[in-house]
UniProtKB/TrEMBL annotation:
InterPro entries: Cyclophilin-like_dom_sf, Cyclophilin-type_PPIase_dom, E_coli_cyclophilin_A-like. Residues 22-184 form the PPIase cyclophilin-type domain. It comes from Rheinheimera tangshanensis. Belongs to the cyclophilin-type PPIase family. One of its GO terms (molecular function) is peptidyl-prolyl cis-trans isomerase activity. This is Peptidyl-prolyl cis-trans isomerase. It catalyses: [protein]-peptidylproline (omega=180) = [protein]-peptidylproline (omega=0). Gene3D superfamilies: Cyclophilin-like. Its EC number is 5.2.1.8. PPIases accelerate the folding of proteins. It catalyzes the cis-trans isomerization of proline imidic peptide bonds in oligopeptides.
Length: 255
């Protein structure tokens, strides 16, 4: 009887571990190549549910990567190309905001929700991929930014290639452009849909529980800390955060 009890307890514990490691995998197909995002369903359930609602509805299909900040992030999930170069983007319709869940760290390769500055619970459609370890600022700024997934396999090679593209400014602001250069911009060569980085489709390719133990997401240990105005890495007066404030990276009502 004791042996059966021990076996039952072991089996129950194994099921609990498996359940806690459940992960959904989303395939992001772009015109520059595909990458997969493994979601942290159990750690950030509200954010994952919000994200998957947009994925299942096809809201992200035929959208664009509308922001690329060199060696920092690429951002998508918020815009589609309008075809009008004087006002090139339209907003993806958003549902209500989701509660912030800043439990994991904004290290390289992680995917997190963008939001309105000074509004911790304002995330809706926009998400970003961290190009480098941005934990020093993003884990604690604005209530911390919710990491809800990670790019796996060789996917970061696609993300990095997007981040190296030319960013024109003007009406296109921080949008990266394919097969387009500063010379083209200076000569006023029209930007076409083929120049934009397009998310052609996002689909769930695995929604069953997986072990995902090898992902080892890094916990956010900085949440609740106040940014040190005198430090070079956390100063609101630093060049990085001035750029963020000026560009309103987290989410613009309109572009």
């Amino acid at each position: 009887m004791l042996k059966k009890s021990v076996l039952a307890a072991t089996f129950t514990a194994a099921l609990a571990i498996s359940h806690n490691a459940a992960a959904t995998i989303v395939l992001v197909e772009t015109n520059m190549g595909d990458f997969e995002i493994n979601l942290f369903d159990q750690t950030t359930p509200k954010t994952v549910t919000n994200f998957l609602t947009y994925v299942r509805d096809g809201a992200y299909n035929n959208s664009v990567i509308h922001r690329s900040l060199k060696d920092f992030v690429i951002q998508g999930g918020g815009k589609r190309y309008s075809g009008n170069n004087s006002a090139p983007f339209t907003d993806i319709p958003a549902r209500g905001p989701v509660d912030n869940e800043p439990k994991l760290s904004n290290v390289r390769g992680t995917v997190a929700m963008a939001k309105i500055n000074n509004s911790p619970n304002s995330a809706t459609t926009n998400w970003y991929v961290n190009i480098k370890d941005n934990s020093a600022n993003l884990d604690k700024d604005n209530g911390g930014y919710t990491v809800f997934g990670v790019v796996t396999g060789t996917g970061m090679s696609i993300v990095d290639s997007i981040n190296t593209l030319y960013v024109p400014g003007g009406a296109f602001r921080e949008a990266p452009l394919r097969n387009y250069s500063l010379t083209d911009w200076t000569n006023k060569v029209p930007v076409t849909a083929s120049n934009l980085v397009t998310i052609e489709r996002m689909t769930i390719i695995d929604d069953s529980p997986t072990t995902a133990a090898n992902l080892n997401p890094k916990p956010n240990t900085l949440i609740g800390q106040v940014t040190d105005s005198g430090s070079s890495s956390g100063s609101m007066g630093s060049a990085l955060l001035l750029v963020l404030a000026g560009l309103a990276f987290w989410r613009r009502p309109k572009v």
